[in-house]
Amino acid sequence: MLYYLIANLLMTTILFAVIMYYKYYGVIVTYFALAQVNQVTAVKNSVFSLMDPYFLFIFTDIVFFAVLLFKKKGDMDWKMKVNKPSSRKVALSIMTVSLIACLFNIVPNRASMNEIVKAEQMGILNYEAYMIFSNKDQEFVEPEKITQQTIYDIKNIKPSEQPILKGSAKGKNLIIIQMESLQNFVVNLKVEGQEITPNFNKLINENYYFNKFYQQVGQGNTSDAEYVVNSSLYIPPRGAATQMYADRELPSLPKLLKQHNYESATFHTNVVEFWNRGELYESLGFDHYYDAKFFGEEDTVFFGASDDVLYRKTVDKLVEMDAADNPFYAQVISMTAHHPYTMPDDKKLITLPERYEDTLVGDYLIAQNYADKALGEFVEDLKEKGLWEDSLIVIYGDHLGLPIYSLNSGELELMKEIYGRDYTYTDMINIPLVVINDGVTEGKVFEQIGGQVDLLPTIANLMDISLEDQIHFGQDIFNNEDNLLPQRYYLPTGSFLTSEELFLSGSGYDDGKHYSLSGSSSENGIATEEEFQRALELLQLSDSYVNSLPLKPDEVKNTD
C-alpha cells in the first residue's frame, strides 16, 4: 500500500502540474519545465490565481488510501487479509501487457506535429515518458548553408532597392518601450464610455500604428520578447531563450548600434537574476542594465517597483545618457500590468460595470488602464526633458495577457462582448505596435502583418544601419507587404501566420485549422502546405544558426 501511494502521488502530481501549466500556456508541460522551478515563488500570485479549488479533487483517492494505510486500530484484520504475497509471474505478465499497450499508443503517434494532439493520442503519462526517452540531438543545418539570401528565399521576399523611410531617424536616440501583457484589443476600447488606454490611443492617432502585429515568445514570456526583438532570431524549441541561448555570442541590436557609437542600457524593475537576464544582457551586448537594485522597493507591485517608479527613475538616467557626446539606445520594460492583474486599490483608476467584477478580464483592463496612465506621464517627461524630438520611439506589447485556456465561460462571454464575436487564437497573440519619429510620423494605420522578429530590421532601416553582415530572420515591415511568421510554444509547432490567416497545425498540415486574421475559423483556408514546410524550415535554420554561434569567453573557459 505504501509503494502504491508513493507511485500514485507521483503520477497525480504530474497530472496536476499538467492541468496548472495548461491553464496558462495552453501546452502540455514536460520535464524541460523543471528549469523554471526557481521562478515559481516569484510569480506565486499568478500560479495561485490559475487554480480552481475543484482541481484538488484529483488527490481524493490518495487521501482515502492514506487514511487506510495509517489507521492503526480496527482494521488490522483487513490489512492482514490483503497483505498476501502476489505471484511474480502474474505481476510480470501484467506489467508486460501494460508496457506493450503503452508502446502501441506511443509508437504510431511519434510523428504528430502538434504537441497537444500527440499527448492526447499517446496519453498524458505515456507522452511524459516519451519526451524523456526521446530527447535526441536536434538535426542542424550546416553553418555555411545559412545565408541571408537563403532566409529571403524561404520567406519569399526581396528587399526593396529604394526603401521608404530609410535613414529618417538616423543619428537619433532609440527608446524601445516593451509593455507588459498588452494585447491589441484594448487599443481604442471603451467600456461604457470609459477609455481603457487613452494615452496609447493618442499615440497611435498621431503616429504609425500596426494593428496586425504578433507576439513570437515562448516559455520565457517577457524575457523571450527581449531576446527576439534584440536579435531577430526565433525562440528555442524548448525552454526560454535566456536559459538555452545566453551562453552564446549573439548578434544583436545593441552590438549593431555600438558600431555607430551608441551607448545601450536596459531597464527592468525585477532582479536581473530572474529568467537569467544578466547572462542574456551580456550575450546581447548591452553596456548597462538597471534592475531592482537601481529602482529600489518604493511603491512595489507584485515583484518590483511600479511603472510610475520605473519611468520616473528611467527618464532621469536617460537625461544623463543624453548629456554624453554619443546617442543612446534604451529598452524600457514595463511590468506592473502583470498576471494576475490584482492591482492595489490606489492603482485602480477606473470603475467597470458589475459584470466585470472579480473576473480576469476586468482585472486585466484595470491593470492596463494604470499602465497606460504611467506611460502617458513618461511621454510627457520625455517631451519636457527634450528627449522626445531627438529619439526614435518604438512601443509594443511583449506577449498576450488573456490566454484562452485561462478564461472561464463568463470571461469568454465578456471577450465576446468586446469583440462582437468569439475570442480566438488570432486575437490572443495579436499585440499592438506604434512607431514614433517626431517630425516624420503621422497618424496612419499600416495593415501589413509583422512580428517581434521584424523590429530589428525595421529599426535598422529607419536609422540607416546596414544589416549586410548580420543574419536576421525578420524583415523591414514598412517595405514588405507579405510575411511568414512561424509560431512556437503558445501555439503548436508548425503553426504560422501569413498576411491572410493563422494556420494552427494538427498532427501535421492536413488536419490543421485555419483562422482568418478577423477571427473566423475553418478546416480549409488560404495557408498552404508549402508555407507550412517553409515555416518549419525557418525555425530549423534559426536553431541551427544559434547553435553555430561561438560560446562566450567565460563559457568556453568553463567548458575547458
Automatic annotation (TrEMBL):
Pfam families: Sulfatase. GO terms for cellular component: plasma membrane. Pathway: Cell wall biogenesis; lipoteichoic acid biosynthesis. GO terms for molecular function: metal ion binding. InterPro entries: Alkaline_phosphatase_core_sf (IPR017850), LtaS-like (IPR012160), OpgB/LTA_synthase_biosynth (IPR050448), Sulfatase_N (IPR000917). It is found in: Cell membrane. It comes from the Bacteria. The chain crosses the membrane at residues 12-34, 54-70, 90-107. Residues 172-465 form the Sulfatase N-terminal domain. It is a multi-pass membrane protein. The active site is at T222. Keywords: Cell membrane, Manganese, Membrane, Metal-binding, Transmembrane, Transmembrane helix. Substrate binds at H338. Mn(2+) binds at E180, T222, D398, H399. PANTHER family: LIPOTEICHOIC ACID SYNTHASE, PHOSPHOGLYCEROL TRANSFERASE I. Belongs to the LTA synthase family. This is Sulfatase N-terminal domain-containing protein. It comes from Paenibacillus montaniterrae.
